[in-house]
Structure prediction request, 465 residues.
Amino acid sequence: MRLVVVSNRVTIPDRHEKATAGGLAVALREALERHGGLWFGWSGVVGAARQLRETQRGNVTYAVTDLSEAERESYYLGFSNRALWPIMHYRLGLTEFQRSDYMGYLGVNRRFARELAGMIRPDDVIWIHDYHLIPLAAELRRRGVTNRIGYFHHIPWPSADTLTALPFSATLVRTLAAYDLVGVQTRLDARNLVDCLVMLCGAKFDGRRVRLGLRETAVRAFPIGIDVEAFRRLAAASVRQAATPLRATRESLGERKLVIGVDRLDYSKGIVQRLEAFGQFLRSHPEERGRVGLLQIAPPSRSDVPEYAELDRMSDEVAGRLNAQLGEFDWTPIRVVKKAYSRTALAGLYRSAQVGLVTPMRDGMNLVAKEYVAAQNPADPGVLVLSRFAGAAQQLGEALIVNPYDTHEVAEAIRTALAMPKSERIRRFEALYQIIEASGIHWWTRCYLEALAGEPVAAEDVEPP
Ligand code: G6P
Prediction:
């Protein structure tokens, strides 16, 4: 069996790459290297040529195509990131729909299907990723592709009631029936997605599979994980080698404690609300001033989308205001760094932070939460503060679970985390570590691919352990 992975963005790895925190790219590369095969998608380049280019790296062929400027505008910036992204993250108020964007989205899916269909072999298993490519299987089926095709939805799936606000949502949801398996992160996502198929498209659900017309589609939750052991080793090595950002951070902190947040600069991540919560913590607990700092690493993302440009401005403004109000001449409470760091540097930073603040307003899974746990020193671990609206909260109940809309609650959780006795930190860490280890990235790909191949999986429905 050859594995064919399709995702919007394909980054061909080189030796000196810099990865942003967590996310899809890192997880998928690890999956493909284990199975061998083909990875198809957008090169990240915008140009007129649009030729398909192939590059071999080990046992993986990367086949990439460029987008035209109009395609990038309509398919990527428009429908994917101004309509689907906000609505799937329950942000109706930020959802901007244009018919021309939707047409562009369908057009790119059609073109991808045309280019990909020529490369498919009879024994290939095709695994399509994320919201940019929902109709791709339907387009492939139209071209006669009969292979097993799976879809994994990395972001949340909202309720039918929310999704119907999106024009053409029923048509879009209906294209999911072209898949043999649809995977989502949590049971709530699975329930919502099945509801959409039943309520918007009239599908039948027998408790395991959705039937629509002649097709049967399995819908299941597969919570994505990380390579825990590799990340743990990276963190341990990073501390030994004292990689530059880590040493510099430590020197600049002195005896002060570190609270860390690492996210793409995205409104779903709750960065502004998190800064406000840290400010609230310092106001409620003035004795902590000067003793602790928040480092927020936020590599810029989708900056051509107006809502992201606004977040960029807002986060600077809030951090600037809080620093001016609460800082001292020799202490800056909040540092926001808007650039990407290597995974090694991040692993070291996580390990030296007493608190990991992962407080998205809504998130499919959130791999930073798992990376933070994996990076800890088992003898003296830090504490994870985690939003109940991250998919990860369904598994990581031993974190301090918070409602990111409640600034006071997050502020008090920071206080609790900083004051937590070592014995309790170790107990919570051990419980969390066990879970992320039992449901790592290799577990995830194995479960998904076994289910896609139609083989029995360990559990009737794959449940988070
Ligand atoms: C999320 C999505 C991915 C996406 C990533 C980065 O993790 O689930 O599909 O690739 O964000 O966003 P970008 O728009 O830069 O690809």
